[in-house]
Design goal:
The protein is 35% helix and 14% strand. It has 245 residues and is of the alpha+beta class. Helix 1 crosses helix 4 and helix 2 crosses helix 3. The longest helix has 21 residues.
Length: 245
Amino acid sequence: MKLAQIIEKNVSVDIAEADSELVKQIQEILTQQNYYKAELDGIPGLSTKLGLQRFKTEHWLEFPSLIGKGTALCLLEGKHPIPKDTPQSDIVLLPAGDFGTKTGRTMTLPNGDKVFANQQVIPHSYITWGEMSKGCTRVPETNQIVRNMVRAAKGFTLIREKFGSPVGVTSGYRTPYANKECGGVKNSQHLYGNALDIFPMNGKFAPLLDVIKASDAVGVGIAGAVRGFYHVDWRAGERVVFYYG
């Protein structure tokens, strides 16, 4: 059995009872992520069990010895490269008089509507079209991408309300070209308008992570204070937590 089959069949397997093919695949992934340093022998020994346990703890997963759909998704997600998008230092708060107004650069959505960089994505939200699209320079190509961006804006607003302090956005929607240029993974959720890379403008990363953990974000990428952001996305399916490195 492979991890993909666990996802497809939605079954759970205890690591102690897993076949050698599955154990070896897990060992290979744990090795790549520095959770396992022993031989890739397909045997579920103590080092394998402890490595899986530490992986599950750090990815907010319950039941230390079980490999189910959620664990398989997290294992297969792997580590992501650090994207080279808008630097945190370039993000500043819009003046109160500009936020939410129909000012700034414009772009035309696939349905023909024109939106402005300083205009809120949805009324009463904390995010503008400019923040979602790098100053309206990344124009969404389909109506579905726009719908995804709206859903992400709603999710972001709930996070911002709970956090209670300004949250900056370093990356939102990316065109295929922009995603390649900034070093994003090939299947990045940013390509579909589902994702945002965010950071606390007051520098309090740990409290923001607590809010993200309790949010409805499905994908959570943890880069943290050292790398300056967290990734949140609203993809379909179960929660996936991953790290950058």
